[in-house]
Design brief:
Chain B: It is a peripheral membrane protein. Chain B: This is ABC transporter. Chain B: It is found in: Cell inner membrane. The complex is a heterodimer. By secondary structure, chain A is mostly helical. Chain A has two domains: about 45 residues, no CATH class; about 210 residues, MetI-like fold. Chain A contains eleven helices and two strands. Chain A has a two-stranded antiparallel ribbon with strand order 1-2. In chain A, α2 packs antiparallel against α8, α3 packs across α5 and α8 runs antiparallel to α11. The longest helix of chain A is centred in the first third of the chain and has 32 residues. The two termini of chain A are about 30 Å apart. In chain B, a hairpin with a 2-residue loop joins β1 and β2. Chain B folds into two domains: about 230 residues, Rossmann fold (3-Layer(aba) Sandwich), CATH 3.40.50; about 120 residues, Nucleic acid-binding proteins (OB fold (Dihydrolipoamide Acetyltransferase, E2P)). By secondary structure, chain B is α+β, with helices and mostly antiparallel strands. The chains are: A mainly alpha, B alpha+beta. At the A-B interface, α6 of A face β6 and α2 of B. The structure holds adenosine-5'-triphosphate and magnesium ion (MG).
Chain lengths: ~280, ~350
């Protein structure tokens, strides 16, 4: 911290403005485990009733929260892995190999990344239906991974660009194959990028809503975002307490990941910008 | 191992870096590639170790044609200018890497690495990552990594450029000692002439992608075949006097002064322009062939003193003398040139061989 710079006014201002936010978050969590008398905000008892969805059997025709969570987890993990593997190899190729049409690929990546997903959704829907992957987890995973890839490739290219090429040349003259050089010498240098990209892709997969909603709405392939949405749209039994509880449940992994990895996440801005 | 480079040509796109270059090294020889920045030294090295594909020409290691052999199979050790150590591995792993690639067993690797580490005096640094090593230590790790798999050829690309003066001196003799001890054929790229002269058996001076002269350091210094080579070697550098050949000797440009080089044969015919190169140690008070000028600059270099003497026509001669001559800035002096040490060049910069009349 720079000592010439008075930090308390800033801290005060930030503190004051974030009080309402903090209160809201705190209240959201408190509210799911307490009961308050009507018309009051002060809780007067503890109840885990709104969390009962965790252990009670689901209503008929509805998936259980655990199968939905498992789906979400599979969805986030597999799409992350796919996006990572393509980004790691594709980014390297774009950064280091003399590809024909390299400029075209680079430009195309940016355009693809900037392209709003929603405008593609009808085409994707038709394609999935045609190949028979509509309403399956596999189909929506493929789509999600494909949409993550341009950003990933671009970021990884930036990281690869910062690795001195002499390291690779030294590896080659030391007798290693091009693949070994990439695997043993280059990948470790871009480790921060891999971590950051992995976390980003996982979080993005975890919170994905629109793709599964449109492309895999059925009970078998349902993910948490869709589950949550179906709670509000179900107007026969509006249960705000349950809605809040599911929301908190949904957010817990995200919060944990941010707490555990926030240093790594900063890397994507620190390391991937050169190039 | 003998290295022979025949009619080497290298282009990058439309840029021709090396037109047609031939070079051969005897087994166990250490050669310096010396030349100004951008003349193609690194490019030549990279062609020899296989990083750059040669556009044209042929490369032989011993009797084997390796022109098209990939880097991995050439068994060439390279020390890069910035060392190119693997940042995520410690010194031991760095040095062991080439052996691991060859899948040698752990015992052998340990033995070889500790031997080579002892040779370059870094035995106690093996646990450190490159970032925790000083420049000189990193350089030794790089050298050890290049040497550990007993390459046939060692290529050093300005390995000493980043070191301080003292370390540089130390490493110079150390590299030379290791090279002679292992009997390896080596090429040292440098643009430091002192380094080239003190470390190598022969020097190849390059200019604009071409080798302009190749000979031993001593011979190169005494017998440069062009003005470029003469001005490249020597510290402090050689000084030049422009003039025109006349019947009586050499008439210096825009001055009355006449250097009576009567005792020399091989002077071109009268009226031809000529450049005379005079090294600082050959311009001394006691020599007979006097020229007069004013001391325009004095630099103390410890044991010796360097004087710049400006002649009446504006040319500058340099003289290096022992301390204690008692000369001062602004003094008018009349010092002499060692006549038979003059290096003469024609207008194109080519050497004119003169000699004393017998
Ligand atoms: N990949 C490349 N593409 C285009 N031109 C190149 C490339 N590599 C080198 N050159 C050019 O080739 C010439 C020789 O480069 P090289 O690196 O061999 O010089 P050098 O003699 O090693 O110089 P220095 O002493 O500065 O290291 C330079 O003019 C450089 O611009
Ligand atoms: Mg170079």
């Amino acid at each position: 911290m720079n000592t010439n710079f008075k930090s308390w006014p800033i801290l005060l201002a930030l503190g004051l403005t974030s009080v309402p936010l903090v209160t809201m978050y705190a209240y959201m969590i408190i509210d799911t485990v307490t009961v308050s008398p009507p018309g009051s905000f002060i809780p007067n008892g503890i109840s885990f009733g709104s969390w009962s969805f965790l252990w009670e059997a689901p209503a008929p025709g509805r998936p259980s929260i655990w199968s939905v969570t498992l789906n979400t987890f599979i969805f986030a993990c597999v799409s992350t892995l796919m996006a990572l593997s393509v980004s790691l190899t594709g980014g390297y190729a774009l950064s280091r190999l003399h590809l024909p049409f390299r400029g075209f690929f680079l430009g195309g990546l940016i355009v693809l990344h900037a392209f709003p997903t929603i405008t593609l959704i009808i085409a994707i829907f038709l394609i999935l239906q045609m190949v028979g992957l509509y309403d399956t987890l596999a189909g929506v995973i493929l789509v999600k991974a494909a949409l993550e890839i341009p950003f990933g490739v671009w970021i990884m290219k930036g990281f690869y660009d910062t690795v001195p090429w002499e390291i690779e040349m030294a590896g080659l003259t030391d007798g290693a194959t091009r693949f070994t050089v990439w695997r043993k010498l280059v990948l470790p240098q871009v480790q921060p990028g891999i971590t950051a990209l992995g976390i980003f892709a996982f979080l993005s997969g975890w919170s994905e809503f629109i793709l599964p909603q449109v492309l895999a709405p059925g009970a078998d392939a349902q993910v948490l975002g869709v589950y949550l949405q179906s709670l509000i749209s179900d107007d026969t039994s509006m249960d705000f307490a349950k809605f809040k509880s599911v929301g908190v449940f949904y957010a817990i992994p995200v919060i944990l990941i941010y707490i555990l990895f926030n240093k790594h996440l900063m890397n994507i801005y620190g390391g991937g910008t050169k190039g | 191992m003998r290295i022979e480079l025949k009619n080497f040509k290298k282009t990058f796109g439309d840029i021709t870096v090396i037109e047609d270059m031939s070079l051969s090294l005897e087994s166990g020889e250490m050669l310096a590639l010396l030349g100004p920045s951008g003349c193609g030294k690194s490019t030549t090295l990279f062609a020899i170790c296989g990083i750059h594909r040669m556009t044209g020409g042929q490369l032989l290691f011993g009797d084997r044609d390796v022109t098209l052999v990939p880097s991995q199979q050439r068994n060439v050790g390279v020390v890069f200018q910035n060392y190119a150590l693997y940042p995520h591995m410690n010194a031991y792993e760095n040095i062991a890497f080439p052996l691991m690639i060859r899948k040698e067993d752990r015992k052998t690797i340990e033995k070889k690495v500790s031997e080579i580490a002892a040779l370059v005096h870094i035995g106690e640094l093996m646990e450190r990552k490159p970032a925790q090593l000083s420049g000189g230590q990193q350089q030794r790790v790089a050298l050890a990594r290049a040497l550990v798999r007993e390459p046939d050829i060692l290529l050093l690309d300005e390995p000493l450029a980043n070191l301080d003066a003292k370390l540089r001196l130390e490493m110079r003799s150390e590299i030379r000692r290791i090279q002679q001890q292992t009997g390896i054929t080596a090429i040292l790229v440098t643009h430091d002439q002192v380094e080239a002269m003190s470390m190598c058996d022969r020097i190849a001076i390059m200019n604009k992608g071409d080798i302009v002269q190749l000979s031993s350091p001593q011979d190169m210094y005494q017998n440069p075949n062009s003005e470029f080579v003469a001005s490249f070697l020597g510290n402090p550098p050689i000084a030049f006097l422009d003039g025109v050949v006349t019947d009586g000797g050499v008439q210096l440009a825009s001055s009355e002064a006449l250097l009576p080089l009567r005792g020399q044969h091989g002077l071109p015919s009268s009226g031809m322009p000529i450049r005379l190169g005079i090294r600082p140690e050959h311009f001394q008070p006691e020599n007979p062939l006097k020229v007069t000028g004013r001391i325009s600059f004095v630099e103390t270099q410890g044991r010796e003193e360097l004087y710049d003497v400006t002649l009446s026509n504006g040319s500058v001669l340099r003289s290096i003398q022992r301390q204690g001559g008692g000369y001062h800035l602004g003094d008018e002096v009349s010092w002499g040139i060692a006549e038979n040490q003059i290096l003469a060049f024609d207008a194109s910069g080519a050497r004119l061989h003169m000699g004393a009349l017998a």
